[in-house]
Each structure stands twice: as structure tokens, then as C-alpha cells.
Amino acid sequence: MSWHRKHLLDIESLSAGEIVTVLDTARAFKAVGERAIKKVPALRGKTVVNLFIEPSTRTRISFELAAQRLTADIVNFSADASSFKKGETLKDTARNLEALNADFIIIRHSASGAPHFLSRVVNAHIINAGDGAHEHPTQALLDTFTIREKKGRIEGLNVTILGDILYSRVARSNIWALTKLGANVTLCGPSTLVPKTFEQMGCRVTHNMEEAIEHADIINLLRIQHERQRQTMFPSIGEYTTLFGLTKARLARTKPDALIMHPGPINRGVEIDSDIADSGRSLILEQVTNGLAVRMAVLFLVNGGPGPQGVAVG
Amino acid sequence: MSWHRKHLLDIESLSAGEIVTVLDTARAFKAVGERAIKKVPALRGKTVVNLFIEPSTRTRISFELAAQRLTADIVNFSADASSFKKGETLKDTARNLEALNADFIIIRHSASGAPHFLSRVVNAHIINAGDGAHEHPTQALLDTFTIREKKGRIEGLNVTILGDILYSRVARSNIWALTKLGANVTLCGPSTLVPKTFEQMGCRVTHNMEEAIEHADIINLLRIQHERQRQTMFPSIGEYTTLFGLTKARLARTKPDALIMHPGPINRGVEIDSDIADSGRSLILEQVTNGLAVRMAVLFLVNGGPGPQGVAVG
Amino acid sequence: MSWHRKHLLDIESLSAGEIVTVLDTARAFKAVGERAIKKVPALRGKTVVNLFIEPSTRTRISFELAAQRLTADIVNFSADASSFKKGETLKDTARNLEALNADFIIIRHSASGAPHFLSRVVNAHIINAGDGAHEHPTQALLDTFTIREKKGRIEGLNVTILGDILYSRVARSNIWALTKLGANVTLCGPSTLVPKTFEQMGCRVTHNMEEAIEHADIINLLRIQHERQRQTMFPSIGEYTTLFGLTKARLARTKPDALIMHPGPINRGVEIDSDIADSGRSLILEQVTNGLAVRMAVLFLVNGGPGPQGVAVG
Predict the structure, then answer these.
(1) How far apart (Å, rounded) are the C-alpha atoms in residues B289 and C97?
(2) pLDDT for res A226
(3) A286 touches chain B (CB under 8 A)
(4) Which of the 8 DSSP states describes residue A282?
(5) Residues of A in contact with B44 (CB under 8 A)
């Protein structure tokens, strides 16, 4: 096992060995979720704070359940909380949480770098649950876990990420994780959302959907944030679907064992055909299940793993 | 004990024997709430999700405490949650919760039939906490429990339900439960809110308050939703109170052992005189206490009861 | 140990001996927060309700963690809850919570006296988490705990409270606690916010900042509620800072061992210079840590202390 980090701030700074350690640990925790009694005492008496300055029910609940299954205590501190209304700074909020003996702060924030900033001003373990357009490391770890579980490996696989790459922390974290583990990553979407500069991250960039998915083993569809970008980055949802939506016709021209992923929540009929989302080719719900296991693994590892008392996972 | 259902979706489909099983089980759980240590380990390591798409603090807290006292883990997912803002469907939300290994989904929703729909698309146990104007089964079970506890039986009792019957899921579920157990049910209120068609459910319908309560053993007053219906269904709150409010003068003409119920929250001075609500004739707070016991019983029974490990209630 | 109260409603009615009992008990609980496993089973199977009718994330989380560390079950009932929207009275809400077998109700309310009112209508233990401009007893207890811990005593110390005294429940509770324990309390701020009538509480009142802090052992800065009072009580934030802000120049003229307190959240650069807030002279974060210990102590004591089973704190 190779893990000596106190925080999980991003994927960029992790080694391939560290990523594999998370995936291996998550495999053990996935089994816990399948038991009748889905709890282990690994974090008993520890305090976890969900500091969500940007709303996210799904990710918040996933972390909340991960903490509960590790027998930690957890409190939620969400965006429209009174302290922020009163103008308190993020630093002051975090130091207050630390003063409450918080052992872990799970932070989602609209500002890139907020988790890194926190890790410098408090002693608690910091876990990045999404910071601006920068990174969403647990999403990339759960995506990588899911691919490895289904395909048996990451190295040499062709993974295509489709959609709004420019503003996507999911894309950035996935690119780091997948390239570190040896996958061939292709990015595709409208040229305004998928600039050629991403080639510097070791990816192939194309604006042609058919070409992007032709040889893919994995097609990871990002959510179109149509409530925000419609006016600015592409002419219409309809045009997006026409050019980049995963339809049955397009799926028919992919490799027969190509699998479909999506970080959710999906826009049925926009970036993905509704039937494909529900088909055996879709890994969307497995990603959710694996997310919980990965988050348990991350909490467990940053806490120091089994520790001197040797609390076993299994 | 006769209970083999995986879900609690409504009262309509339950047999009298199943209803009695819930009431008997709730009696054992009521004793747990009176202990110094109000917990039993029946659902340890199980995950309960409160999926409240329509706000309800009281019912949500009642289910939350019921789950805690059974030692389950519980997370709240409420109405203005981010996923719904982003346009995710109910089906997708529920399947995501299932992918998080949720064992129970307690759903309140403004759409009639939402719990039944969920029971067809996910494997978790579904408990209906109120669906539109359709049913609110745990409310009817706690009302029936309270009547049986006070009167010793249901069969042959005269139960009058007063108020907005047309739009009331509480009324519908109560009518099913009470008639299945042999009570004589009378409905009363303005003719716009208590149409004659309810006679098809086996009830007597009257629009005369005095006649409705004259021979009643139980008078169950529904809440007037005056924030919504004032303009449309009856001329004014004042007129409603004049015609259908339970005043001391009216109470004096009922049977001396007639008891008063209300699902809460009450409008003091509208559907009920404030002193009556606080009197020894009122069962309003006992209903709340019994609601918790009934919800523990429901969670326990849909989970399969004591199960192979034989976790005892007492 | 001298504690026989069922509730904590205010500081005004406590004796010096009772205050000291809370402080001594909190000292034992502070040690719990420093352990690897921060839990004691003192309130296992007890139900705590956070009834926050006025929003406060920080105080709510502090009580939530205090309850969790005592192994109680806790549910949150917050301000924009549906029942209040529907017009239910506070009394009815509290009696409903009691009917759910709530053992403790922690109440924050904009109306002075709300906790006292509750203590007369329900049987649960009531803890005042701030009522209007009246009292905020746990804040005063944590402030007093912090002073005693740092200075070794309260008696004979010069404590200066600065800012909006007139509308501050923190000031009122602190004045009661400090004068009961023998401190010399000085109040300072704009004359509109610090009327001479406070001398009747046994304090010195001055409107001259330099004079107020010159001999102080402790300077407790209250938060300026600039979002509310700007227009009415003083001409501008800038002028407040000029006259009453704690700047480095002013701090240089205080006793070298004078320590700085603030109930938080702070307005950096308004009532306190940012560097001072982060300096070794500031006790702001220690106050937060001590708040949790004090709240554990209060829950423990109103519950009857160690009780017949003799659950040990340590």
C-alpha cells in the first residue's frame, strides 16, 4: 500500500501507485456496502464536516453515507448558511470548524483552489469534493475504479470524454487519472468547449463525434450545463444533441463492447439517448455505487489507513 | 403475525389482518419510546433516505427519529435539492439512491402514485409519506392505533371526519383503514369539499355539522388549508368556522366520551376551538407520539420483521 | 457539584456556584474533544432537537456535535420549516416535539423569553441557544470558561465589552456571568448602543475607547451587525472603526497581557484589525473549542449529571 497523504486535494499531484492504492482499498469497501450490516468502526469517534458552499445533494449524500458507514459523526454545513450571509471568510469558517475538533473537512466550492487553500490554514484532513472548474478527484477515482472493474485494466484503453471539457472539473480530474494509468484519452465536443490546448495534457482533441467514439472502449459523457451555457458557448441544445448527443445510430458504429459512463445527473435526450442510459452498456448507476466505496476508501486512507489499532476493513 | 409486503404504498391494498399486524407491532415499539434509552438495534447498518419532494418538517422528523431509534443510518434529501433544480427525473433520483445501497426510501411527493412508481423502478423498500391527494398511510395507521388504544376496538365505532375531504390524503387513507376494520365513517364539510361520491367508499356523507357529530365516538378534524383554498372552495375562514368549526357549544351536544383528533398542525380558532385542542378530550399529541411508534413498526415490518437473527423489539 | 436545574434558560438566575459547576464539568469534557475517539455514552438513547427559529449555522453545529459526542440522537428543525409557514404556534411545535419523546429542546428564537415560555409548556429539558436581545447563556459560559482557563480566575479581573451592547444577548449574558463571579465589567461603544442605564447591572459605562481598554485584562469585542444598524444607530462603518475598532495602535496602549475575545463571526477590519484576530493575543478560536465542551457540560448537567448508572465523563 502506498499512501502517505493527509489530504485529497486533486488527482494531478498523485502518482499512479497512489491512485491504484485508492482503487484497491475501495474494492474492499465496496463489499461492505453489499452486507446486511453496512458499517465498519474505522472512524468511530471522528468528526466529518460536509462544507458545501456550492450546492450538491448527490455528492453530499454520497460523502455523508460514506462517513456513516465508517461510523464517523457527520454534520452538514451548506451554502446559504448564516455565517456566509454575515460575510465571514472561508478561512475563518474553516478555522472555526477545526476549533470544533473536526477531523475531516469535505469541501465543495465554486472557487478553484479552495481545498488547497484550506489545507494550508487548518490541520484537519481536507477532501476536495469539487472546486470550480479545477478538479473533482473522487469523481475521477470512481470513474477509474468503474473502468478497471469492468475492463480489468486501464492501461492501453481508449477513453473518450465528450462534452463541455473547458469548464469541467470532472474532465480535468479524469484526464489526470487516466493518463497516469496509461489510457489513451480523446476529448470531443464543440470547439468553443474543447480547445486544442488540452493536447498539452496528453490527450487527443477532435471535434468530430464519429471519429471520437469509433475506437473507444469507454465513452464518458459529461453533463451539458444548459441552464448556464446555452447563450454563450453553443447555439442551442438541439444543435448540441445533433452534433454530439449519443444516439442509438452513433452507438451502433462503436466497438460492440464499448461502455457508457456519465457523472450524472443525466439530461435524457440531450447528451444521451434515454434508452442507452438504461441499457446494459451504461455504467451510470455502477458509478454511483462505486462512488460511495471510493469515498469510504479516501476517508480511510487520509486518516492513516488501518492505523495502530489495526481496524480491519473486511 | 401477517405481514409479507416489501413496501407500504397505501392502505387501500392492505387487508384488515395486515393493518392489525402494524398496530400490534407499534404497541411494542411505543414502549421503546418510554424507556430511558430509546433505541433498539433492529435496523443497525441499514440506510434510510428521507426523500421529501414536498416539504414537511413534522413527518420528516417523525420518520427520522423512528429510523434513529431502530439504529439505522438516515440521510435527508429534500425538495429544493440541487438535482431537481438541474432537471433530473424522480426515477433517476430514486435509482441513484438505490445505487447508494439505500435500503429504505421514504417518499413524500406532490404527485399521487409517486411511491407506487418508485416501487416498480427500484429494489429498496418504499414507504409512502404522503402522495398528492391520494394517500398518507402512516397517518391513517397512527390514527387507527390511537382510536384502538383509547376505545379498545375499531369495529362498530362511529368516526366522523370533518373538513376538506376532497383534497385530503389523510381522509382517504383513514376511510380505507377504518372501514376495513369495521367502523362507521361519516364525512362532513362544505359540499364543494365533501362531494356525495365519497359514499361509494362506504361512508355516510352529510353537510350538516350537528348531524355529523351527534353520535360520533371519534371526531377527526382535518386542517383547513386556508392559504390555498380560501378563494375557491368556500367564501371565508370565518364562514367555515361558523358552519364547521368545533366550538364548545357544538362539543357539548356530542356524546360525553367522544374524543377529538387532528393530524396537525392545527389552526386554533378555525377548525377547532383552542381550549378543546388542549383539553382531555383531545388526542392530538397522543397521535404524534403514536406516529413515531407506527413508523418504527412499518420500517421494522417491511424489513422482514425480526428476521433470522431474531432481533427482539422489547 | 451544585446543579439541580432541569433547564438552562439564562445566566441571570444562576448562582456563582452553579456557573462554576458548569465550568468545572466543561473542563472534563474538553479533554474528550482531544481524544482520538471523541465520544462518551452519557446520553445514549436520548433525543435532542435543535429548534432554530432564527438561523445560526455555527451555534447549531456546535450543539449538534456536542450531542453527537454524548452519543445522543439529534434532529434539526430549522427556521423556514413548513410548520411555521403553515402558522403553527411555537407552543404547538414544542408540544409536538415533546410528543415525539424529545428529551432536550435547544431553542434559538428571535423573541426574548421564548425558552422560558417553552419550559412552562413542555416537560423536555430546554436549553436557550439565544433568545432575541435577551440572553445567550452558553456563549457567556464559554467566554467565562475561556477567561478562567487563561487567567486562572475571574474575580478581580477587568473585563471590557465593546460594541453594540443594547441589542446584544451576548453582552447581557456575559455581564451576568462575570459580575456574579466578581469581575469588574466595563461597557463601551457609541452612546446610542451603550446607554448609561447598564450601570444598574453593576457595570461601568464609558463611550471613550482608550479609557475603556486601558486597564482591561480581557477585551471582548462584539460583532457589529452592520447589515442591520448602519442607518439607524451610528453614521457609518468607517466612523465606527475609527472610534471603536481595535487597531494595533490601540492595542499597544493596553496591558501587555490583555487578551482579545470575540463571539464570532468577526468582521475583519471593522471591529477588529485582521492581524490582531490571528495573533497570540486572540482567544477567538479557543472560544469555539470551549463552546463545544461547555455545551456538552450543559446537556450532561441538565440531564441529571452522571445519574444512577454513574456514566463517567472521562
Answers:
(1) 9
(2) 60
(3) yes
(4) B
(5) 37, 39
Q: Which of A222-236, B35-49, C176-190, C228-242 has the lowest mean pLDDT?
A: A222-236
Residue B232 near chain A (CB below 8 Å)? no
Measured CA to CA, the distance from residue A297 to residue A28 in angstroms comes to 8
Sign of the C-alpha dihedral computed for residues C98, B152, B10 and B111 taken in this order: negative
- Asked whether the beta carbons of A11 and A115 are under 8 A apart, the reply is no
User: Which residue, B99, B98, B93, is CA-closest to B78?
Assistant: B93
Residue A1: other Cβ atoms inside 10 A: 12
CA distance A56 to A40: 26
pLDDT in tens, B278-287: 999 999 999 9
Is B62 at the interface with chain C, CB within 8 A? yes
Most C CBs within 10 A among A49, A51, A75, A95, hence the mutation to make, goes to A75
Whole-number CA gyration radius for chain A:
19
Dist CA B44 CA C209 (whole Å): 58
A192/C50 Cα distance (integer angstroms): 49
Q: For cell 475517539, what's the residue? A: C37
What radius of gyration do chain B's Cα atoms show?
A: 19
DSSP string for B224-255: P-HHHHHHHHSS-HHHHHHHH-B-HHHHHTS-
Asked whether the beta carbons of residue B289 and residue C99 sit closer than 8 angstroms, the reply is: yes
Closest residue of chain A to B103, computed from CA coordinates: A36
In a 13 Å sphere around the CA of A60, the CA atoms on its Cβ side amount to: 23
Grid cell 451555457 is found at A229
List B48's β-bridge partners, or say none. Answer: B74, B104
Summarised one tens digit per residue, pLDDT across range A244-302 is: 999 999 999 999 999 999 999 898 999 999 999 999 999 999 999 999 999 999 999 99
The total number of residues shown for chain B amounts to 314
Residue B221, all three cell numbers: 378534524
**In Å, how far are A120, A194, B184, B218, B286 from B23, measured between CA atoms?**
56, 61, 19, 18, 14
Cα(B47)–Cα(B67) distance, integer angstroms = 9
* pLDDT at residue number B83: 47
Name C279's Cβ contacts closer than 8 Å, sequence gap at least 6: C260
| Residue position matching grid coordinates 407506527 | B294
Q: What is residue B230's predicted lDDT score, i.e. its pLDDT?
A: 47
How far apart CA C279 and CA C266 sit, in angstroms, is: 14
Residue A89 touches partner C, C-beta closer than 8 Å: yes
Q: Residue A102: is its pLDDT beyond 80?
A: yes
Is some CB atom of chain C closer than 8 A to the CB atom of B148? no
Contacts 24+ apart (CB under 8 A), B150-156: B150/B259, B150/B283, B150/B286, B151/B217, B151/B218, B151/B259, B154/B178, B154/B181, B154/B182, B154/B183, B155/B181, B155/B182, B155/B183, B156/B182, B156/B183, B156/B184
User: Can you list the domains of chain C with their CATH numbers?
Assistant: 16-135+288-302 (3.40.50.1370), 137-287 (3.40.50.1370)
